[in-house]
Design brief:
heterotrimer; A alpha/beta (about 350); B alpha/beta (about 325); C mainly alpha (about 300); A: about 350 residues; alpha/beta; Rossmann fold; eight-stranded mixed sheet; disordered C terminus; B: Rossmann fold; four-stranded antiparallel sheet; globular
Chain lengths: ~350, ~325, ~300
């Protein structure tokens, strides 16, 4: 069996705390597991609200921060232990598109600066002409022409155009994985489809996988292959996107999907949503299900230990909730969250 | 098997009375640039009745925020109101001076601007910020009465009373936004304009804030203009929808009819491209506003993107006409000969 | 699928770079300050071609002449003449020559001191802000300590010991105390810019720390650096003039500050020879005002929010 492209293994990230510091401790991610295979190229959605840890996950995968515990392996190799050469390769093969199409451009330079930087640092071209050709090719993939945009300054282009250029830049490096952190949330609604379409084409025609991070389940539903729903740093539910969104099992996910406003005035939001006004910050790595305070189906069991992932549907549809204790534990060994293994019922 | 929360099929109560609280006629707001005037709002006419929520939708650049700013006379140079009347209680506020306007703002019409929750003063407690808003318009208030008033406002928007002496950074996004709603209704205005009130909020919090707005409307009978681009949210909250494109109002209808049967080709495009959570369909690609706002094409504003465009559309501007009860549309396709 | 981005009707208008904002460089304060400063510089540069600068030497001119247009009966004062339009002083120096020679000297002191200070500030401030960790701690501790040293007192002591001071040496002395300010300011600017989107993008593109500091962050700080620089020049000239007025400046060549010193020492005020200390002070006022205007003008250019609402 070939190596998975990216393997996030029991990764925990804790901010604050530690020797000498007395500030508040935040557990951004706890014992997270996620695997992306090399083939086929997939769009894996990481969905969650603010505080779910999805941005931390993006930063970890991109190498901007290191995990407190656990490993991130790229093609089998632990990223934290890569040497300079390997890191350079990793940098090239794992690229990103960020949320804010305004902030990612240096206002001092013209738009082509973003391409020049990449080409220069990764030695992608031997001379100006080659570089120009590569840039043109990348821009064609996103439906633009060099002469229209390269000489402009960022403020002269629209948000949608800027974001597409960022995707072109990512493509230029011929990556295997693109981390897209809320790529369309700051783009006007009418231009979003175009960007999502580019992502689909990159997956289908060039075999590039995506880690699509978002809080908007409707776009995830349209383009995601698999989905991981995070709640306060842990996986609440995961599986095939259509399956999970059509048949949510975890109470949090059910609440989430129920709260999405349906564009049909005859179908209204259901009973009142519960929300805690004090965001009870995750204070420490304590046991118990994180959703307990807001869950309307909670049991005492839920306070004792954090529920592991149970198989709750076809494929890899799994949910971390004791409501499904009777179901078999998630099959794949590294996806098991519980510290102590709960023996399957006889 | 999915769990179904109770979805009620509910024909909304007809909004309030027929009393008109705001009448906008022929509003034109242009921005001067070195190369010509950008027509941000071009001849927009509509009315808001008592106790109704009207949604104002359109893509970025269509002029919805400018319209809201113009109603409150907050348009800054190089923009200016070129033409039109804005009638509140039969007074044309487009003609008032700054001093007179100060009596209208916040007491008759208030605003929850975009990103309001990030504009709360970080060094003032909530009670002082709301108190400030009240005292600026009504003069100094007796302490106890003011405190009770603020506490009652907080409870109207569903916030616990301990928020009274908290600082903004101690509150979550949804709570801050509800504080802004409380400030907007503090002086019992007849109309509240909310510009993208939920755009930066999570889905569940968005629902709470949305339901708060509905609650406020039902309890206080205040009218609202809700500006946004999330059609799903509009469907849940508003009574009527006004659709804008490139500075023009192209359709105005009650929300049920609009979603059931959108008339204007642009509205159809908008509704078609809403990403659905019920079924997977191929993405509908749209281009955004394609013409230069300084130089709009003669005739219908949408002609460059309309699949049903005719020669008449290219030369004659279609007026906004009522083609059925409570359905106005600006499109040649629907006028009888 | 290519989506056309051209405008359909009118020919596309090319808006170059800053046109959109009505060119911020046309800032009144900046331009007025700049012209004042240029006028001053011009006097120093062009002056020698029109006026004999040797008249700035001691005993080169008749003593104690008032400016040419002044009629006075003060005792010991000679008759005004147009050969010395701004008058002369007790050492036989012609005032106009003194101005022509001394003004550029004062400016030079400021430029060198501020220049060296800013250079050190850029290097240390950037390193501290960007690299963080122990580098930051060391640099910060150092600059904080130097800031607390009373610079004027130390400079007086040093100058009192070092007998002959040239303009350049004085400038370097001042630079010793000029670098902590820029260091701290730039450090905080870099800290806030470090998390910008385009910095992350540059990191993803494989840029080295150095390249990010100087090619991504520094260009965006140029207006800020410029206004900080002019502010520092102003402060340096003030410090230098202060030292000179106490008699601790260069003795052989006249500067504005030394001229004031001589004037005070020779009791020019009591003797009514206002032109001796008046013209240098006027020149200094013009220099400081122009630098001040340039500084706040640049501040407004760099930070659009300060520009205020125009009618």
């Amino acid at each position: 069996m070939s190596q998975p492209l990216l393997q996030i293994e029991k990764v925990t990230k804790i901010y604050g705390g530690g020797f000498l510091k007395r500030g508040p401790v935040t557990v951004a991610l706890q014992n997270l597991n996620l695997t992306i295979q090399q083939k086929p190229a997939e769009i894996i959605t990481i969905a969650g609200e603010s505080g779910s840890g999805k941005t931390t996950l993006a930063n970890l995968v991109l190498g901007f921060i290191t995990p407190t515990s656990g490993h991130i392996r790229y093609l089998g190799q632990d990223v934290a232990q890569m040497d300079k050469e390997e890191l350079k390769k990793y940098r090239r093969e794992v690229q990103a598109v960020f949320q804010d199409p305004y902030a990612v451009y240096n206002p001092f330079y013209r738009v082509k600066h973003v391409f020049d930087l990449a080409i220069k640092n990764f030695n992608l071209a031997r001379n100006r002409q080659e570089a120009r050709d590569q840039i043109e090719e990348a821009l064609t993939v996103v439906g633009m022409r060099g002469e229209e945009v390269l000489e402009k300054y960022p403020h002269q282009l629209s948000g949608g155009q800027r974001q597409r250029i960022m995707i072109a830049r990512a493509y230029l490096l011929k990556p295997r994985l693109i981390v897209a952190d809320e790529p369309v949330s700051m783009v006007d609604a009418s231009l979003r489809a175009m960007i999502l379409d580019i992502m689909l084409r990159l997956r289908d025609e060039y075999g590039i996988s995506f880690l699509y991070i978002t809080h908007d389940l409707s776009t995830a539903y349209q383009i995601g292959d698999k989905i991981y729903l995070l709640y306060q740093g842990t996986v609440a539910e995961r599986g095939d996107t259509v399956e999970v969104i059509d048949h949510p099992k975890h109470p949090y996910v059910q609440l989430l999907i129920d709260s999405i406003p349906v564009p049909d005035p005859t179908i209204r939001w259901g009973s009142r949503a519960t929300t805690i006004d004090d965001e009870e910050m995750r204070v420490s790595v304590e046991s118990g299900c994180r959703f307990y305070p807001r869950c309307d189906q909670r049991m005492d069991r839920c306070l004792e230990s954090h529920p592991p992932l149970y198989q709750v549907g076809p494929g890899e549809h799994q949910a971390a909730c004791f409501l499904y204790e009777d179901q078999p534990l998630a099959q794949v060994p590294e996806d098991n969250l519980a510290k102590e293994r709960i023996p399957a019922a006889d | 098997m999915s769990v179904n929360f109770a979805h009620e099929i509910d024909e909304r109560r007809p909004a309030g009375t027929d009393q008109v609280v705001l009448q906008v006629e022929g509003l034109k707001v242009y921005y001067a640039t070195p190369t010509g005037d950008v027509r941000a709002v071009d001849d927009v006419t509509f009315q808001i009745r008592e106790g109704e929520i009207v949604g104002l939708v359109g893509e970025s650049g269509c002029g919805k925020t400018t319209t809201a700013m113009a109603i409150l006379r907050l348009v800054q140079s190089p923009g200016r109101i070129v033409d039109g009347r804005i009638l509140v209680d039969d007074v044309d506020i487009a003609r008032l001076n700054e001093r007179e306007l100060r009596q209208i703002r916040w007491t008759k019409i208030s605003l929850i601007p975009q990103g309001a929750m990030n504009s709360l003063n970080p060094v003032m407690r909530i009670k002082d910020q709301i108190g400030d808003a009240i005292e600026t318009h009504e003069g100094r208030q007796p302490r106890q009465a003011l405190k009770e008033r603020i506490l009652s406002l907080l409870s109207t928007v569903g916030l616990p009373s301990r928020v009274y002496k908290m600082y903004p950074h101690e509150l979550s996004g949804g709570m801050k936004q509800r504080v802004c709603i409380a400030m907007a209704i503090a002086l019992n205005p007849t109309l509240v304009i909310a510009d993208e009130p939920t755009s930066a909020l999570d889905v569940v919090v968005q629902r709470v804030v949305g339901e708060t707005l509905l609650d406020v409307k039902n309890r206080l009978g205040v009218s609202m203009i809700l500006i946004g681009h999330d059609m799903g949210l509009m469907a849940q909250l508003v009574d009527r929808i006004a659709v804008m494109y490139a500075g023009h109002l192209v359709e105005l209808a009650d929300v049920y009819s609009l979603f059931r049967e959108p008339l204007h080709p642009y509205t159809q495009l908008l509704i078609d491209s809403i990403p659905s959570i019920k079924e997977r369909k191929p993405l509908k690609l749209t281009e955004g506003i394609t013409h230069d706002l300084r130089n709009p094409p003669p005739g219908c504003i949408f002609q460059l993107r309309c699949p049903h465009v005719t020669d008449k559309c290219r030369t004659v501007v279609p007026p906004l006409l009522e083609v059925a009860p409570s359905r106005e549309v600006a499109c040649h396709l629907y006028y009888d000969a | 699928m290519s989506v056309s981005t051209e405008t359909v009707t009118a020919p596309a208008v090319r808006t170059a770079g800053l046109n959109r904002w009505d060119s911020p460089w046309l800032n009144t304060k900046f331009l007025v300050g700049l012209s004042m400063l240029l006028a001053v510089v011009l006097i120093g540069v062009v002056g020698p071609f029109f006026w004999d600068t040797t008249l700035a030497r001691v005993a080169s001119s008749p003593l104690n002449l008032p400016p040419a247009w002044v009629e006075t009966d003060l005792p010991g004062i000679g008759k005004p003449t147009w050969e010395h339009p701004l008058g002369t002083e007790s050492n036989g120096r012609d005032m106009l020559a003194v101005l022509i020679v001394g003004t550029p000297r004062s400016l030079r002191v400021g430029l060198i001191a501020a220049g060296v200070g800013m250079l050190v500030g850029v290097i240390l401030g950037f390193s501290a802000g960007f690299m963080g960790g122990w580098v930051d701690n060391v640099i910060r501790t150092l600059s904080d300590s130097v800031i607390t040293i009373p610079s004027l007192a130390v400079l007086i002591v040093i100058s009192a010991y070092v007998r002959t001071v040239s303009v350049e040496n004085m400038a370097l002395l001042l630079a010793i105390f000029a670098w902590p300010g820029p260091t701290r300011l730039l450090r905080s600017q870099v800290l806030s810019m470090r998390e910008r989107g385009y910095v992350q993008m540059a990191r993803l593109s494989g840029a080295s720390t150095f390249a990010i500091m100087f090619k991504e962050i520094l260009p965006n700080l140029l207006p800020y650096l410029a206004s900080s620089f002019t502010g520092n020049v102003s402060a340096a000239i003030l410090a230098a003039t202060g030292l000179e007025a106490l008699g601790l400046g260069p003795t052989r060549i006249p500067t504005l500050g030394m001229t004031i010193f001589y004037a005070l020492r020779a009791a020019a005020i009591l003797r009514g020879m206002w032109w001796w200390w008046g013209f240098p002070i006027a020149a200094l006022i013009i220099i400081f005002t122009s630098l001040f205007l340039i500084t706040i003008g640049l501040d407004e250019i760099a930070n659009p929010r300060l520009r205020g609402v125009k009618a």
